[in-house]
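Lecture 7 notes: from sequence to structure.

We start with a single chain of 98 residues. Read the sequence below before looking at the structure.
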Amino acid sequence: MSDATGQTAYTYKATTGELTQVTYPDLVKQISLKNGNTSYFNYEGMKLTHLSRKQSDGAPLHTFTYEYDPNGNITSRSGSQSERAFTDQFTYNWDGSR
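Now the structure, written as tokens:
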């Protein structure tokens, strides 16, 4: 499917025809700043799974990895920031609030 943002691609399981992946063209994959630092984004469907930021020389600034529950809520965020590793866990109430 094509629209003003580009082409959305669909991947199906050959044996069953089940939809296995959707690739959206309009999700941000990279942002470069004037100072040379660059952020890189990876997704699984519409969910951000990995974010990394690098200096202009390629040295890492931050990395973040996200995990989700079946409802699409972030359940954990882990990574490193300023050379310190961390992991945050999130839980939600029955109504979806944290």
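The mean pLDDT is 87. Keep this in mind for problem set 3.
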